[in-house]
Amino acid sequence: MDAPGSNAELRAFLHGLPGVDQVGAEERAARLAARSIKTTAKARAIDLAISMVDLTTLEGADTPGKVRALCAKAVRPDPADPSVPKVAAVCVYPDLAGVAAGALAGSGVAVASVATAFPSGRAPLEAKLADTRAAVAAGATEIDMVIDRGAFLAGDYLAVFEEIAEVKRACGEAHLKVILETGELATYDNVRRASWLAMRAGADFIKTSTGKVSPAATPAVTLVMLEAVRDFHAATGRRVGVKPAGGIRTTKDAIRYLVLVNEVAGPDWLTPRHFRIGASSLLNDLLMQRQKLTTGAYAGPDYFSLD
C-alpha cells in the first residue's frame, strides 16, 4: 500500500477498520484452545513448535558465554537426539548480536536482535536507527523493534508509521518484526489498528510483546493479529508473519497457538517463515514432552540445560 499523505488520512483508514467483538474474540480463542490433539498430530506439532521458537535472552546480566551456550542449544536442542529440529532464531541485545552471529554461522538459525530502545521505545529516532544499523552490521538478520506506544495512543499514527518505515530502511536485507506491546494498547480495536499500521509501514512480522509488560501474549490478542495478517494478505497479496511472545511456557500453550494459526490465518502461516514463538523457557517443556511421546518416560528436570 502507498504511504499515507497525512495523519488524518491514516486515522480515517485505521478507524474505518471493522471493530473487534471483544466477547466473540475471547470466546473463539477459548473454544479453539480447548481442542484436543491426538498423539501422532501432537508429535508433529511439538516438532513444528520447536522449529518456530525464537530462543531468547534479554537480561542485563547476559554475557557472551551465556549467548554462546544458548546458540549451541538452538542448533542442537537435545544433544542426545539429533532428530530434534533446530529452533528458528536466537534473540539477543544488539551488543551481543556479533557473538550470536559467530556462534550460529552456517547453522541456518537466524540471529534476531531487539533494537530501537527496547523495551520502552523512548529514544530519539536517530538513536533508534543507529541501534538498528549496529545490530545489522554485527550480523543480525532479524530486527525486533518496539513502536512508540505514547505516539500511537495519542493518535499520532503518522509518526509511528514513519518511524517504522525508517527502521525498515535501516534494516537493509534484515527482516523487521514490529512489537506492538499489546498489553499497553488497552483495546482489541487498538491491536487491530496497530497491526495494520505496522504492516502498511513495511513490517515483515507483527509481534505481541516485549515480555517485559503484563499482560504479554494472549490467545485472544493473537487471534486479532492473525485476522489482521489474513485480511492484509487478501487486500495486498503480501504475507506478514505473527510472533506472540511472553508468557508462553508449556507445550500445551504452544499447541494452542498452532491451532489458532491454522484455524484463523490458515495453514500457509504454519511455518517458521510466518509464525514464531518468542520464549526463553518453553523449549525445555517441548523437549520433555517430545521425549515422553518417544520413550514413554519423562526426563529428569536436570536433563536439559537451563536457558
Tell me, briefly, the overall form: globular
- Structural class of the secondary structure composition? alpha/beta
Unreliable stretches, pLDDT < 50, 5 or more residues?
none
Radius of gyration: 19 Å
Number of domains: 1
Instruction: Output the strand order for the largest sheet.
Output: 7-6-5-4-3-2-1-8
CATH topology heading: TIM Barrel
Largest sheet: number of strands, sense, barrel closure:
8 strands, parallel
Describe the model.
Helix content is 48%, strand content 10%. The chain has 307 residues and is of the alpha/beta class. The chain has a single domain (7-294), classed as Aldolase class I (TIM Barrel, Alpha-Beta Barrel), CATH 3.20.20.70. Strands 7-6-5-4-3-2-1-8 form an eight-stranded parallel β-sheet. Strand 2, helix 5 (97-104) and strand 3 (110-114) form a beta-alpha-beta unit. The longest helix is centred in the C-terminal third of the chain and has 18 residues, at 219-236. The mean pLDDT is 94. It comes from Thermomonospora curvata (strain ATCC 19995 / DSM 43183 / JCM 3096 / KCTC 9072 / NBRC 15933 / NCIMB 10081 / Henssen B9). Its EC number is 4.1.2.4.
